[in-house]
Each structure stands twice: as structure tokens, then as C-alpha cells.
Specification:
The complex is a heterotrimer. Chain B is built from 8 helices and 2 strands. By secondary structure, chain B is mainly α. Classes of the chains: A alpha+beta, B mainly alpha, C mainly alpha.
Amino acid sequence: MTDQADQSRRNFLYVAAGGLGAVAAGATIVPFIGSMLPAADTLAASKTEFDVSTVEAGQLVTIQWQGKPVFVVHRTPELLKQVDGHDDKLKDANSEAIAEVQQAWMDTPETRKYRAIKPEYLIVVASCTHLGCIPLFKPSAGRKDWGDSVPEDWAGGWHCPCHGSYYDLSARVINGSPAPHNLHVMPYEYKTDTQVVIG
Amino acid sequence: MKTTKFLMAMVAAVLMGFSSQAMASGGGAALEHAEVDMTDQEQIRRGLTVFTDVCMGCHSAKYITYRGLMAYPEIGLTREEVDELRGERSLMDGMISDLSIEDAVVSYGKAPPDLSLIVPGRRGGADYVYSLLIGYEHDHEGKVPDGNWNKVFPGNRIAMPDPLSWLDHEADEEAELRQQAHDVSAFLAFIGDPHQNTRRAIGCWVMGFLLLLTLVLWRLKVEVWKDVKKH
Amino acid sequence: MLDKIMKTQLFAWIDKRTGAEAIIKSQLTEYPAPKNLNYMWNFGSLALLVLVLQILTGIFLVMYYKPSAEATFGGFTVAFDSVERIMRDVNFGWLIRYMHAVGASMFFVVVYMHIGRGMYYGSFKAPRELLWIIGVVILLIMQGAAFFGYLLPWGQMSFWGATVITNLFGAIPVLGEYIGQVLVGGFAVGDPTLNRFFSLHYLFPLLLAAIVGGHVHALHVVHSNNPDGIDLHKPEEMIPFHPYYTIKDAFGVAFFLLFYCYIVFFNPQMGGYFIEVDNYVPANNLQTPAHIAPVWYLTPWYTILRSFESKLLGVAAMGASLGILFVLPFLCRSAVRSARFRPVYQIMVIMFFIDVIVLGYCGHSAPTATLKVVGQIATAYYFLFFLALPILPKFEKTKPVPEGI
């Protein structure tokens, strides 16, 4: 038979023990789940350097950054012209929809149209924003080179083979595509005229 | 109850008695104490300088990267300082000596061991490394050439020639050489276990918490068992 | 609080589909335990705690550990590099690794205390013989798991310890060479050995989890022994396991964690006993360390092995020293269980515990002539203890055993 003082002391101790136990359990989980976050050396490999002068005019090169594929396209003046005149067919002509499709330097109509620091070199993540496949580069306008795989009024760009999304030559997604957003632009900067640091 | 107490006391004694780190190696002299402080950034940096100026001529420390020299607060070099040290090498590279293993074997007879884990990997730890660096003496028997006889190295004959030029040092050089030996021992002790300061800091909190938890559970046990004791 | 949970609708839903209420009652809230159990009875729950800790830390280590003996720069290997990566680059990797290494040793500390309790208080005697035998199986699997795990960092001690022990199996007549090849997977300990030891190291603790379930089940059928070693019949001598022993066990866990965490956070190497100094040196198959010894918890059996000139006799004696544990319940013929009431057995069993410590000390130290003789005497006593048990009742005057508690 326990008296009132004993019972309230007992309750206090139960609550104290339970509370401390919960704190202990929570504190124990922290290092285990924490260990699953990227390790220090994995995080450190977050920047890639690339020399854009190695990409020839009109050529597309795919490089790796943080384990992801990245397109580097050297756009000729002709290709740059193909970026104009179809804003009404684009889902997100000004790259406004989400944070990943824009950068701080996209602050003029020109940078928003060309989506690059230097218009000749477009650098975007080569992962279709639908489900991640790598889209195929189909730069020339019209159906001459690409047949039925592209629409009649094709202005050049990318076509994703997995579910048929289309992007223009600034990697902006075209209406009717399953992909919701333009191809992502990651942070990059020019260390010199030709050396880019991505990440 | 007596037997229980006895057994518990034995267990405690056995566990606590195993804390000693300094066990003199067979064939070696008694170790001197290395004055190292794992929270002393200046000492560890001085030790890094000794390491890069002297040790890296032959030894690598591949588990400490140039990036780590910036990332660990106990070293905390700036990007410029690290760039100066690493030259053309990547930030992600370990600190590798320019001396190839083959050349080292030709010159010294053995491959110089990697120093990343030399402190935990030798009986006596930092004390051993310190004592070794200042342990070069003339071989009394005259068999071993000068610079290869060491009083703490097991068997006394060491392939590494006196790196700090301890042998035949001038009296006024002694303090500086000893300091270099202390400092590089500190650096090596740090890189052998770079998270040790965080470990001990977290440990204090954990022990404090556990003492509280144990106290609460003890009182709870006593309280609940009052029911049993009454019968 | 448990009774509040058991009154909820959710619990009723679960109970209807699993019989949870009956299980909780029969195994916890209405499960009878003697009311006089002392703290030596805490070690079973502590052993379960450490097993869970080892499995938990092990699973997270495996997310980064790579079981490959492929050489890397500086005389290291992919495996050794991956352990250092865990220590340096993985978030809290150093903590998980130290918990696992310290936990391995603490597992044996706790289990040896648990076995000591069983031997002292006669918990191995009828009707608990099978419970004891399952326990010996657990001990053997623990030793196997520890042996396999120790190879994984691929340090000097890992490699040479594995070489010595796998050579041991070669001493077994007829099958020895075959067993050795199956273990090693080649001519000498190497990458194939590492890979299969990794697989077995993962398997054995999971086997343990299942066998521990059987151990607890066997216990729950015959119920716990008690320090007086008498059979308890009266209801007032028993108390429900929950809340009395759940709370006492929780207190024991907290007390244990004080020791465990002190070691993990302030002295994980334990002077080279928990993490050996030589294992910070990468394995070199052309150079044996000056001083090979197995990890402390295997040293008693190492001494027994080394006490004999003949390799075969040594292996046989080592096997016998483990095998004889199985038949302890049948060797001991005394009608009295607990050493409290058996003056001769009490001295003998305490001397046995000291003997095992002496065997361990000899096994860990460099083999001098004196220590070899000491080890041989200790080996002799080890076996004499067991062999004397059947004849003990003939001349031991037991003290009067109490009627109840």
C-alpha cells in the first residue's frame, strides 16, 4: 500500500525517467541518421572545373558534376537566333517557375532568354525534369535531320526519348511536354575567359 | 551480496586498470613524456611545419588531405596557405611525399611508413614518437653507424637517419630541437585521431546526462521496490 | 502506463490479430520471477542490449565499409582505407566505429559475468540444462562472430590473428586441410578470406538474435533460478517481471551505459586491449608483429592451446575446454544448486574464475618459460574443476538450504 507522497514521487520519477529515456533515444538516433548524410569527402567533391574552349562551335559535350550529367553547348550565332520567336510555346519562357531553373545573373531579358553567363556557352543539368532521362540533342530546325520525332515547327533543341518532352535551344521546356520545368541551371562562374567552375 | 560486491569490484578494477597507454617496448629505453595539447592550434600548426619541412621528405600521411588542413579547426589553415603547400596537387589529395617507395628502399633499405596513424600504431603513442626523435645516440659498441642507433627503437638499429639532427647537437640548439619534437608529435597525435576533441566534448555531456538518468532510474527502482520489501 | 496502452482501441485491434495481450501478460506483467534476484541477474538483459547495439552499429558501418584486400598507396588496402574514411570523413563515423569496437569487448565482459552467475548459483542444473547448453552455443557463435569481425579492418593483428587461427584448423586430422581451405579460400589469408569472413560476420549476429530468442523462451518455460538456488513454490515468493525487473533492468542498463560510454568517449582503445595498437598498422604478409596475441576475450583458450607441445593435442584441448562446458549440467551431481550453501564448490568455482583470468593473462603476455608453466597449471585446474564435480557430493558437506525466501 503506497501513500500519497510515495505515489506522487513515483509518478514524478516515472515521468522523469520516461522523459530522459526519450531524450536518450533521440540523441542516439542523431549520429546514426547523421552518418547517412553525405560524408565530408563526398561533399568536398562538389565543384568541377571545365575549359569551355574545348567545345567546338555547334558541339554538345556531356560532363559530370556531383555524379550528375551536365550539357555544355557551344551555340553558334545561328543557333542563338533559333532561341527567338516562340515564347508563346514555352511553359516558362523567363525561367521563373522554381529556384533551380534560374540564377542570380539572370536579371536581364537577354540572360533570361539565353540562360547563360556567356550566351555562346549554355551549361545546364542534362536531366529531364520529368523523370531524369538524358535528352537527345537535336539542334537543327525543322524535320530534315530528325524526321517525325520532332514537331513540324521544330526550332531546334532537345528531345527526351523516354516520354517525349521537348526543350528549345536554351533548354526551356515546350508546351505539351510531360516535363514540368526547364532544364536546371546550377551555380557556375568563369574563373578566366575559358575556365568554368561548376558548383 | 558479498560475492556480488567482490565480483563487481574485480570487474571495475580490471577495467580501470587497462587505461595505461605507456607500455615500454621490448628492447627499448624508458619513454620521455611528450608535451602535447590537442587543443593548442599553434602547437599543431608548428608541428605541421616540421612535418612538411622535415618528415615529408620521405614520409607520406595519406589520410590527412590538404582540404582537411583547412577543415579541421585544430589546424584551420586558410585557402592561400593550403594552396602554397599543395602546389599542383588537388585539395582532395592526401599529403604524399615526393620520394617514391622504390627510391626510399634503395636509399634507406625500407619503405618509410605512412605517418597518418603512427601515434596510435606504436606502443607509447606520442611519448614514443617524441622519445624516438630525441633518442638518437652513438652506438657504444661501434657496430651501427651514427644516426642509425636509437635508444627507444626496438632492437636499437633504425633505418631512419636522425631527422632532427639530434645527434651531436649544440647545447643552445637543444631547446629548439626538443620543441620541434614535441610539436611534430602533437601534429601526428592529432592526425591519428582528428575528431578526438569533439569526442571528448560530447563525452562530457553524455556522461553528465547518464549520471542523471542513472540517478533517476535508481530512485525509481527503490521506490517501486518498496512494494516488494514491505511483504 | 502499459495498462493505459492496453486499454486503447488500437491495442484491442492489434490484440485481436496477434494475441498481443496474452503475450504481454505471460511474458511481462504476469510472468513470475523470484523476488530475491540480485544484480548478477542483470547481465542477461545487458547482453541483449549489447547484441542490439552491435547489430545497429554494424549495419551503419557496413554502409561505408568495403571488404576488399586490394592494395592501395602506402601499403594499405581498400578495406583499411574504408575504415579510416569512416573514422575521418563519415559524419559521426568515429563514434559508430568506436561503439562497435568497444561493444565487442563489452559483449564478452557482460556474457562472462552472466556465465559466472550461472556457474556460481547453479543455474545450469536441472531443469535448466538445455537453457545452459543453448547459452554455450551462443558463446561459441559470439567467438566466431568476433573472430570473423576482427579480420575486417585488415590491420597487422587482423591478418596475423586470422593466419594463426586458420592454421590451427589445419591441425585437425583428416579433415583439417580441407576445413582450412574452405575457411581461407586460397593458399594464405587474403582477399577471398576477407570477403567470406565479412559475409559470416554479418550472418552470425543475426543467427545469434534467433538463438537468443530460443534462449529466452527456454528460460520462460523453467523460470529463473535465484541466489539461494531453491525451487520456489509460494506465490508470495514471486513478483511479476514488469514493473519490478523491467525497472531494475533499466537501472542496470543506465549503470552499464556509464561504463560503456566512458570508454567509448574517453578511452576507446583501453590501453590496446579493445583496439590493439598493432591493428593501426596495415597488414603486411611478409612481416609478423613482434607480439601476436588474440584479443583479450579469446586469450584463455589461447593459453590452453599453447600449453601443449603437440599442435594436435593443443587444438584438441582447446576444443575440449569449450566442449566440456556443454556437459557441465551432467557432471555436477550435487543436490544443492547455489554455491552459497556449498562450501567446497564455492571455493572451487571462485578459483575457477581466477583461473580463467590467469589463463587470459598468460595468453596475452609474451610466452616466457615461467608463464608457460603457470599457463599449464592453470589449464590443468580448468579441466580438474570440471572433472572433480561428479565426485564432489561424496565428501562435500553442504550447508542447510532454506525452505523459502
